[in-house]
Write a structure and sequence with these properties.
alpha+beta; FAD/NAD(P)-binding domain; Elongation Factor Tu (Ef-tu), domain 3; 2 domains; seven-stranded mixed sheet; six-stranded antiparallel beta barrel; 12 helices; 20 strands; elongated; binds flavin-adenine dinucleotide
Amino acid sequence: MRFDAIIIGAGAAGLFCARQAGRRGRKVLILEHNAQPGRKILISGGGRCNFTNLQTGPENFVSKNPHFCKSALSRFTPADFLELVRSHRIEYYEKKLGQLFCRESARQILEMLLTECARAKAELRTGCTVKNVSRRELFEVETNEGVFFAEKLVIATGGLSFPKIGATDFGYRIARQFGLKIVAPRPSLVPLVFSVEDFGRLAGIAVEALVSAGKHSFRENILFTHRGLSGPAILQISNYWQKDEEISIRLLPDRDLAALLEANRDSKQKLDNFLGRLLPQRLAETLTAKMFSNKPLNRMNSREIGETAERLRDWRVRFRETEGYHKAEVTLGGVDTDELSSRTMESKKVPGLYFIGEAVDVTGWLGGYNFQWAWSSAFAAGEAI
Ligand SMILES: Cc1cc2nc3c(=O)[nH]c(=O)nc-3n(C[C@H](O)[C@H](O)[C@H](O)COP(=O)(O)OP(=O)(O)OC[C@H]3O[C@@H](n4cnc5c(N)ncnc54)[C@H](O)[C@@H]3O)c2cc1C
């Protein structure tokens, strides 16, 4: 059967691209190997889908080429997606920092996309496995349901995160098959595992901190897990963390600890109890036991006070690895942006072949940016095919 365009992957980007191309009168087929489309949308944002971020800008993305995302983001903005959400009467709210969530359920976003695809007369085949892709005059996509032909082929199969709901390396394999470069993929927006520290007894404790790697800092909660750290500040910094690099954690980011300790120089209180007034007691005790000598404050000299304050202001932590793709919200890396047109997402080497969404080397921060990239890149391709 012949189509104008075949889109492989019925996730956020694939469905939105099909809608956009279908509205322009293109005959579109979407192929999805799962029995249901959009499974990641359903589990996103804790079931409420953080579908965009009002403050989206290129600085919220990580890519080998930080300029690549600009064109697509400027031509389909958070306001554009919000207009669509409103037109489907989906109630939403701003959680914080421009993050928009469905009030009821992520299912509403998926239903909206499916309704839009149906209106645009895009054909969706689920449970469809792609066996082979080749290109002669047209692209030929061989599947368990037969061979489909099209002038344009859009790869929207996402990254490697959450393999249990259908993530595959299909996009990277197709890119390699057609001679396109890949930026090595790795898990991101993911908890980190300590190299040596053992803070298992702190699992479950959350505190606000300023977390930094290189020039990037995020101030939000960190959460101790059985093996390492999680929480929004850690997930955010995982986008920038390089293996074997230390991360700096500033505990008590609003306090001048040196001044507080100085002001309590006469106190007979021991350091762990004093810190326990500022931090959860279990954390204060564990940090003191591991990092300091637990003296009464009136027995600490100025050097010890300075060192204690400095170590909590710039707690240097080494991590061995991430918790991996099973716990990562996204995949860093992907199809090298050098290979693609930033206006259309079309391959420069292989005319008619497009890559959109998470399969491309553009990864957003936590907070709705990854879906906005899916919508914007899908729009760019959907307008071009
Ligand atoms: C738990 C979790 C929560 C998240 N929450 C948010 C959030 O609230 N806000 C946000 O912005 N981002 C969130 N993300 C990230 C966001 O879901 C992704 O960045 C986004 O879904 C990427 O869209 P995509 O269409 O490129 O890929 P996907 O949505 O992953 O879609 C890819 C599709 O391709 C299909 N596919 C894969 N291989 C094949 C194949 N070989 N043949 C056919 N089909 C195939 C998959 O089954 C899937 O349906 C979350 C991610 C996770 C894992």
